Amino acid sequence: MSGQFEATTEINRPIEEVFAYLAAGTNDPEFSPRVQAITKTPEGPTAVGTIFTSTVKDAGMKTARKFRITEFEAPRRIRWTEVSKNTVTADEGGYDLESTGDRTTLVRIYNVLEGHGIGKLLVSLALSAARKDADAFSRRIKAAVEAS
């Protein structure tokens, strides 16, 4: 079983600034309390093939996550896939950005969650939690980008 959650927010920054912040990839702990640490390989600008490795805490348990950038179209689109083996993974996710004015950008984030093994039983709970937090998550992204 799989399912998707998504959220949108309008950020008071030009699209190029918002894209740069999100493309850096290592800013996630600023808006995602579940991300404990994150690194990028290789160093340098994010591109297709860049890997982000993170430690996240979900439901009191720490897990290691690895995401590979699969599409990168500045300043409008970033896509990723989780390459780590966990019970619930984000098999597909991304950001879509749209300029809505000189200094405003609409951002949509989404993830498609997939359960593996016992995760097939847990994915509905993970989706429920993600959907419940989606609006707050988008507000945290907005606050973090605007504060940067």
Please identify the structural class as seen in this structure: alpha+beta
Helix content: 25-40%
Give the N-terminus to C-terminus distance in angstroms: 38 Å
Overall shape: globular
**Major beta sheet, specifics?**
7 strands, antiparallel
Based on CA atoms alone, the radius of gyration comes out at 15 Å
Structural write-up:
A hairpin with a 3-residue loop joins β4 and β5 (77-82). A seven-stranded antiparallel β-sheet has the order 1-7-6-5-4-3-2, with helices on one face. The protein contains two helices and seven strands, in the order βαββββββα. Helix content is 26%, strand content 47%. The protein has 148 residues and is an alpha+beta fold. The radius of gyration is 15 Å and the shape is globular. The longest helix has 29 residues, at 119-147.
Layout of strands and helices, then pairs:
Elements: E1 2-11, H1 15-24, E2 35-41, E3 51-58, E4 61-73, E5 77-82, E6 88-101, E7 104-115, H2 119-147
Antiparallel strand pairs: 1-7, 2-3, 3-4, 4-5, 5-6, 6-7
